[in-house]
Design brief:
The chain has about 140 residues and is α+β, with helices and mostly antiparallel strands. It contains four helices and seven strands. The longest helix has 15 residues, at about 10-25.
C-alpha cells in the first residue's frame, strides 16, 4: 500500500534513507551520509513524500520537490519486488515531467530509470561528493506506462 507521509514516519524513513545510501553509494564515504542525516531529517517533511507499507511497516519511500525526484529508497530486503516502480508510478500520476540526478556509478538505478522512461540529458559533477552524475528527465508524452 502507498500512502502520503505522516510526521510519525520520519524515523523509519530516515533509517531506510541512511542504510540504503550507505549500501548503494559505497563509492562515497559512509561519513558523508552520517553527517547529512540531521539536515535531511529536518528538510524531508517539506517535500512531497509517499511511503510504501508492507505488513504494517514502511519498506520504501519517494521524495518529490515540485517536479524533481529527491530520491526513491527501498529497504534492500524488499528490492526487486516492484516497490520502486510502484512509488515512481505514484509520482508520475500527477506530473507531466519529472527530473532527477543519479550518480554515474549507480548503474542499477540508471537502468531502473531508463526502463521507466527516463532519458539522460546532462552530465555534471556533484560538488559535495566530486562524483559524476547524470540529470535524467521523464515526460508524460514520451512514455506510456
Amino acid at each position: 500500500m502507498i500512502r502520503k507521509f505522516e510526521n510519525t514516519d520520519i524515523d523509519a524513513v530516515m533509517q531506510i534513507w541512511q542504510n540504503e545510501n550507505i549500501k548503494t553509494h559505497n563509492f562515497i564515504p559512509k561519513e558523508y551520509w552520517e553527517s547529512n542525516y540531521e539536515y535531511v531529517k529536518k528538510l524531508l517533511p517539506n517535500s512531497e513524500i509517499y511511503v510504501y507499507i508492507e505488513n504494517d511497516k514502511i519498506e520504501g519511500f519517494i521524495g518529490i520537490n515540485e517536479d524533481y525526484i529527491e530520491g526513491i529508497f527501498v529497504n534492500s530486503n524488499y528490492q526487486n519486488k516492484g516497490i520502486g516502480t510502484a512509488l515512481l508510478n505514484k509520482a508520475k500520476e500527477a506530473k507531466e515531467e519529472l527530473t532527477l540526478n543519479v550518480y554515474e556509478k549507480n548503474r542499477k538505478a540508471i537502468k531502473f530509470y531508463e526502463k521507466n522512461g527516463f532519458k539522460i540529458v546532462k552530465e555534471a559533477v556533484d560538488k559535495e561528493t566530486n562524483e559524476k552524475e547524470f540529470r535524467m528527465i521523464w515526460n508524460k508524452g514520451d512514455f506510456k506506462c
